[in-house]
Amino acid sequence: MLRFENIEYLYALLMLPVFMVMYLLFVLWKNKALKRYGDLKVTRQLMPYMSKDRKIIKFILLMASWVLLVIGLANPQIGSRLEKVERKGADLMIALDVSNSMLAQDIRPDRLTRAKQAISRLVDKLSGDRIGIIVFAGRAYTQLPITSDYAAAKMFLSSISTEIVPVQGTAIGDAIELASGSFKDDTHSKVIIIITDGENNEGDALQAATETASEGIRIYTIGMGLADGAPIPMYNQHKQITGYKKDKKGTTVISKLDETMLQQIASAGNGVFVMANNQRDGLDKVLQEIDMLDKTEFETQMFSDYEDRFQYFIGFAIFLLILEFLIFERKSKLAAKIKLFSR
Question: I want to staple 205 with a disulfide (CB 3.0 to 4.6 A). Which of 62, 75, 89, 172 is the partner?
Answer without folding.
Answer: 172
